[in-house]
Design a protein that fits this description.
about 30% helix; FAD/NAD(P)-binding domain; homodimer; 2 domains; alpha/beta; 5-stranded parallel sheet; 10 helices
């Protein structure tokens, strides 16, 4: 029908959704056809999933209907799962159909990475998407609901074991420190019967923050009954719990969650792409090395930070900034203009510790902690909504609860 | 210290709690010491448990702190479980102590009765108290939460199988007809994937109502997607579901609930009492046959209806009316006055079919159905609160949701 180029965006996470919205603004309908492929008809705020998993927010608050933020008359929306990318044939195989493309943007997000720890995949929950996260909160509540009604219930069935003390693990135990007392009250269980245990192999929690903030976070969590075990490597996950440390101690829990690592979507490997630590190495302009028309962004992308001589850590902030560059570079490609290289503008990092505490680095090195950090975290979360869907979305899904 | 008689009331259900409150009003502190023994520090509305089990009300709405409705300065409150009644020694053995009595009121309520159906006790949930009922609602929700996240999930894990089409069974499926669409929406599951199946051996549901009302109820439930299988005897309950009918069809479900029968507390048997269908046969004045000082009321009591030549069906209404007579008879015993016989004043029966439909017989034979019956059911429920705790309790726990 037309000769206009077809841009296919895979994934409606922070990276893919932002790219799509930028493309709609940047390109006229005559310049390109845009197709957005996503497994579900909704986007979710993946940085809020720890709250869904703890049960401190409703799963629906963390998701946004794609058709509410992308005009279906401008973008063809395909709700299907990606099976394989055949880049030599410029085709994408979906579960229920196939798509050809002229330009491809791969933003397929992350999967849990258990680094091959024995039994982890089988026995631990992972925080990957809405489905997996709300199952965790329901599983936890179910342990509480069963406890008083089961003569043989063991106390450790109430325990919640979280592997990994990175961003997700620590933010999760922070939420659990709020949630567990509520569950205890609801199900007539003494708070002292429930252990929240965080296990981390590294010598510190939250390696992206400095010692002072880390010490603050650790104390805040411990004061609220979270046990933090650092320098404790997990050698195995059994149906009962983690086997930890040199003396192979078994820490038992009714709920076991692994947050210790992520990798790029498994579609990358299935498509035969060359991978660096499970991700695709990209050039400065965010194209897959050696490819003219394939961009890879977000958690699937291995982007080198030349200044720090290491890759950028995967965050929502990074993904959305990459999306801006990819949209601009797609326009440049179509118009035969030179491409620009990605430069990250770090606006800071804030970690919540439950709903009324947190730590953060903002404005290039300014440290915050306590309630002001918790407030700032909500500002950050609402800003992500603003970028994705404008003020209407902030009003609909924003975080305005009292703190 | 004193020679005043000691009245011990076992159980703070409708029967025991009402007896206690009547005694406080009827007797002066000098006339008798009153002790109320209950497993928990709360009373629960056992006629609301199907709503707790379906998850359509918060468990806390269905319970009342005993100290909120009984003055602890007038009544000694003992929160403990009854192990055995030694009536020849006028003693009650509790899990953590013992009590002697001059007069005893046994109001220990009901337990599920599976009539010996193979596997039922092991594999089906029963609606017996707050703990067991909220576990059911959590179990149901957990099946929904797991479904989309489990590659191997089978559709029948979403099914809810309810054995028994008496009051509890039918009121439960009525609530489930409201709850299931909400859960489907919350967990992104197509409503058509979920079956609510009610299985009853008798040729009709709700045997206490006439054909016209039964037909109305059946149609109302079926219109909302409840499958009702009458004349379908359950020969076995397996972990997967019910084995039903002559052809031994296995109906599979992720949630299996038995509501097909109740019997009096197992303490009665453990205490060596002579039982008729699991209950204690009482005289007209509600004393255990042959006993001077032991009253048995509520679901533990087998009370003959001479007019109808059959026992009264156990209801909250019956229990509370019995309590009035027991309190009066205790006062008469203490004062050496003649005892009076119990006469039941039937105020009618209303069954809910979810929150906006129902059927009922009120004012001796006047039939109601539809929204007016649903409204009347809430009036009945609020009246029970009024009798137990006065207007304050109605305001606190009453049912005023829109319908």
């Amino acid at each position: 029908m037309s000769n206009k180029p077809k841009i296919v965006v895979l994934g409606a996470g922070y990276a893919g959704l932002t790219t799509t919205r930028r493309l709609v603004k940047t390109l006229s309908p005559e310049q390109a056809e845009i197709v957005l492929v996503n497994k579900h008809n909704y986007h979710y705020e993946s940085t809020w999933l720890h709250e869904v998993a703890a049960g401190t927010i409703n799963p629906n608050q963390a998701r946004v209907m794609i058709s509410d933020v992308v005009n279906p008359n401008r973008v063809r929306l395909v709700y299907d799962s990606v099976v394989e990318i055949k880049k030599d044939e410029q085709r994408v195989v979906l579960e229920n159909s196939e798509l050809s493309y002229d330009y491809l943007v791969v933003g397929l997000g992350f999967e849990s990475n258990d680094f091959g720890i024995k039994g982890m995949a089988e026995n631990a929950f992972a925080i990957e998407d809405i489905d997996s996260s709300r199952e965790i909160s329901e599983h936890i509540e179910y342990q509480f609901a069963k406890y008083n009604n089961d003569q043989n219930a063991e106390d450790h069935s109430l325990n919640i074991l979280v592997g990994g003390a990175g961003f997700t693990g620590i933010e999760l135990v922070g939420e659990l420190a709020n949630k567990v007392p509520e569950l205890c009250k609801k199900y007539d269980i003494d708070r002292s019967k429930v252990r929240i245990i965080n296990v981390e192999a590294a010598p510190s929690i939250l390696p992206m923050f400095d010692k002072e903030l880390v010490a603050y976070a650790k104390k805040s969590l411990e004061d609220r009954g979270v046990e933090i075990k650092i320098g404790a490597a997990i050698s195995e996950c059994t149906p009962e719990g983690f086997v930890v440390g040199d003396d192979k101690e078994l820490i038992k829990a009714g709920t076991i969650i692994w947050t210790g690592g992520v990798k790029g979507s498994s579609v990358l490997g299935k498509s035969g792409f060359e991978l660096t630590k499970g991700k695709v190495n990209v050039d400065g302009d965010l194209r897959m090395k050696g490819e003219e028309n394939v961009f890879v962004i977000g958690d699937c992308s291995w982007v080198w930070n030349k200044e720090a001589d290491r890759p950028y850590p995967p965050t929502a902030q990074l993904a959305m900034q990459e999306a801006d560059v990819v949209a601009a570079n797609l326009k440049a490609l179509i118009s035969n203009q030179p491409l620009t290289d990605f430069v990250f503008n770090d606006k800071g990092t804030v970690a919540s510790l439950g709903h009324s505490d947190g730590i953060g680095n903002i404005f290039s090195g300014y440290k915050i902690q306590g309630k002001s950090a918790a407030t700032m975290k909500k500002v950050v979360d609402n800003r992500s909504l603003l970028l994705l869907g404008g003020p209407k979305l902030v009003l609909k899904k924003g975080k305005f609860r009292p703190f």
